[in-house]
Structures
1.
Amino acid sequence: MKHFLSILETPTDEVVRILARGRELRGKQTDVLKDQTLAILFEKPSLRTRVSFEEAMYRLGGRSIVLGQSEVGLGKRESVEDVSRVLAGMAHGMCLRVFDHTNLVKMAKVSSVPIVNALSDLAHPAQALADAMTLADEFSAGDATRLKGRTVVFIGDGNNVARSLAVICGKLGMKFRISVPDQFALSNTWVEKIRAAVPGFDFASSSDPMEFLAEADAVYADTFVSMGEETGKESKLGAFDGFQLNDELLSHCPDHTIVMHCLPAYRGTEITDSVMDGKRSRVFAQAHNRLHAQIGLLAELMGG
Ligand code: CP
Ligand code: NVA
């Protein structure tokens, strides 16, 4: 594995190794990445991703340099490829949050050091690693290879988070269900790509938010309007009437169902306070797992 741009391109055994490594290194300070530098550049806001990658480098004995988009001007002051060529000669890895996923692909093509997707319009693979870790903590004593047959029900937009979650569920043998208004459903192209990588991927989509609740081991929410989609926000929100994860929806799930959300949450919109703060909620453990999963990721990707 040279780069980490999406779960789709990451072999399943590598996903399993990353999660196991992250688990093994939980709470430890090591020198796995001693004297290595990760260059971090974000075009969009972040709390969890930014802090967890920086802290992960610190815990692995390395360091990070956080660059401001306004000073670098990715694709504006100079081409994305030139930014990549320059950083590859000065840092041991790059971690980028971008609007346009194709910029990551362009940078990866010319980079001699690993590039990590820290969220793009297409995918949020680092989030998916933490999601799988959280499911494994809950259902299989931390062993991601024993999640087979579990069902994750995503309620909301067929966005970057949903795409990456769908793939990691498929790769780990879980069923993936999505309840989403038709116009925001996952594209057939994406689902076919997962099927090509994961023969037998167990997937279903519905425009009825109630449809899959009875089979959920986990119900998952994300914002209905992602970063960069602010234009047309009100009309998009209107399409999600009835898709709020609230006590009524949760009451149709089995007793053991847990609640997940990648955060940030718009409380009162896609999820209510009582569900976020309720006893089934794992959202903060999930946020903390960003750190542990990414320690595993960086150790595997940059540490050999
Ligand atoms: N879940 C997530 O990626 O959060 P941030 O946008 O705060 O990094
Ligand atoms: N789908 C959201 C995820 C935020 C972590 C977005 O892209 O804004």
2.
Amino acid sequence: MSLATSTITDLRQKLTSREITSRDVLEDLARVIEQKNPDLGAYLGWDLEKALAEAESVDLTLPLGGIPIGIKDNINVLGEPCSCGSRMLAGTYRAPYDAGAISNLRKAGVVPFGRLNMDEFAMGSSTENSALALTRNPHDLSRIPGGSSGGSAAAVAGGIAIATLGSDTGGSIRQPAALCGCVGLKPTYGRVSRYGLVAFASSLDQIGPLTKTVADSALLLNSLCGKDERDSTSLSIPVPDFTAALGRDIKGLRIGLPREYFISGIHAGVSAAVNGAVKKLESLGAIPVEISLPHTDLGVSTYYIIAPAEASANLARFDGVRYGHRSAAATDLLEHYMMTREEGFGPEVKRRILLGTYVLSSGYYDAYYLKAQRARTLIRQDFEAAFAAVDIIVSPTSPAPAHKLGELKDNPLAAYLEDVFTIPVNLAGLPAISLPCGSVQAEGASLPVGIQLISKPLDEMTLLRVADALEHALDQTSGPV
Ligand code: GLN
């Protein structure tokens, strides 16, 4: 059995007892990646020699000493490519610095290892928008892994990463975690530094861990969080020891079931698995409470104004002047901009830039952008009101299990609608986790189903406490396939 299928917790024990070295882990990992990545397409690249050199000087007594973590391709790691799944950056850009999240992980002894595929600039829910590789679901290679952190989820669930980092703007950690069958956590907005995360929608983006267990999620979160002077939105608040949330009971906790989230249109197998998990929570002593989040139906349309608006501004920097792709065919300055962007960006990125530019343009700003900001406030207030009565809110992570590759490719609107349960969480800046809660059978494959737990701002502790209790009760720790 390969070490790559281990949890962080298991590896730590083996490393500190000197049963294995961090070199063993990296070499083993590289071996299974070479074996399985041609099928899975999770990694865009990896540099074993660099990682081995870094592992040499790692202090094994640190909390994550010697643990290799795979990194989504939109997070800067010094000296490594950071292409955001885009032709705009592939082959031309190497990170000149470490992202804040990476510096924090290094301080804890982590060795970043491997670049993971993603939808171009994190726009998408299937990883099919990557311009660089096709990532497949480890449970059924004819299906999508979800997205945009599809490479990060497929690598963990496919047993070719110990754990990985993703980023989540509207569900991009939680949804692929649900579709691949691993644990994905989006922290409260501001918990983790966004410095060095290539910005998609700055008021929504957040980095978080994808892991095999809830315990591993808590361990990684301990090291990821903290104030970073280089990100003015990162919060200056104490970081608790999140592992203190593990192994506790959940008796008397109130679990909110939003009426608007348990609707028809959800895949029957997904409903059954999520309802089963809710029953488990009840059997552990939690108290179910029906709640209402009345503005849920505004979530997707609000997001698809705000996120493209911010993206259109953030992506203006990719103009062929400072870095990235530069068109060779242009003969004057205007052509230089136009052809560089025409050649460098894929169709979904162009669609978002067009949408964003439109909603921000003079004459439309009030009608779209300002209105979306107001709707965003209503969505946040829905959660505030609900959390007066409950400790945790529960929903399916995604309304359906993994689709076939190509199934929604020409129907962006249908794909956008699938983010209905994850998007409101980003709009409200809340922490949420997805963990496996069962499976549905489809054409001979067993496809994972994820349950989403949402907590109050900064209450990752309760989130992890309930997730850990549920994971153990369900006995669903996502082993590799
Ligand atoms: N699927 C959503 C989108 O396409 C969310 C992406 C994300 O969280 N990065 O924008």
3.
Amino acid sequence: MTPELSIIIPLYNEIEVIEICHQRVSDVLNKLDLEYEIIYVDDGSQDKSAEYVSNLAHNDARVRAILLSRNFGKEAALSAGFDHVQGELTIILDADLQDPPELIPEMLKVYEEKDVDTILMKRTQRDGESATKKQSAYWFYRILNKLSDFHIPEDVGDFRLMNKKSLDALKKLPERNRYTKGLFAWIGMDTFVMHYQRDPRVAGVAKQNYASLFKLAFEGISSFSIHPLRISTILGIISALFGFLFGIYIALKSLILGDPVSGYPSTMAIITFLGGAQLLGIGIVGEYIGKTYIESKQRPIYLIKKLVSKKEINEK
Ligand code: UDP
Ligand code: MG
């Protein structure tokens, strides 16, 4: 029987939380009167997470485990999940229970009432996150939205409900550089925003550190906008114009006033400024070329080592 609801949970070294996660998610789902499936995507964990979810899948037909061949990152793990969804509706949850599964019934209710394609969960509070993280998130979204051509909502994560139409649209985006939040926004569709309070992690530590978040931020900007390229062109035009006018000024000054050409410091200042601006421009261009290079290789977004489900085992 095809399930009505599919829950995707990506995992990377989450053995400390997976038991309580499964408990809480199942408790909520069992109270609902619908067929569901839980898809655990193990993103190449080095701990016993993969073994744990494989066991769950062995014993319960409603649970499936997708084991990726190595750590591909959360975005890729989600893609793997999307490709295996059977249900009409899909909900994405973090294994660390920062997105409370207890909200699922309300999400379903709102979905019925509002007749939309996606329910976006927007956090009202970022508990257990440092002031620097909040600040950097704030600035990141401001810059991102200034640069990109469509609005990418702030303070939302991957926690959301999507119907089949939204999911199918999302699956049509084939890029390797995946900034899921932006991809979600790009597909559009009728969206309802629901507010919720994001909990602190139940146990363990965040797997996405500052370096990976910075990478993701850059990914976000360069995947959704080519404005940085345009900015470097404009900067180039402005400085070339300035250089031209400055040249005329110096020529006239020495012709009319007979001033000897002087000014080692100003020459140095201009050379270093222009040198820096050029390197910045080349760097920005390089980022985009790099992206094109990676996309052109057409490698798969993820590779699966093993699929575990009770049905498949019975069929063998
Ligand atoms: N995750 C993953 N692959 C990774 C990093 C994280 O599948 O390479 C999963 C992780 O197990 C968790 C979710 O993505 O279920 C969110 O990760 P985390 O809590 O570390 O990030 P944050 O809460 O800071 O967004
Ligand atoms: Mg987390």
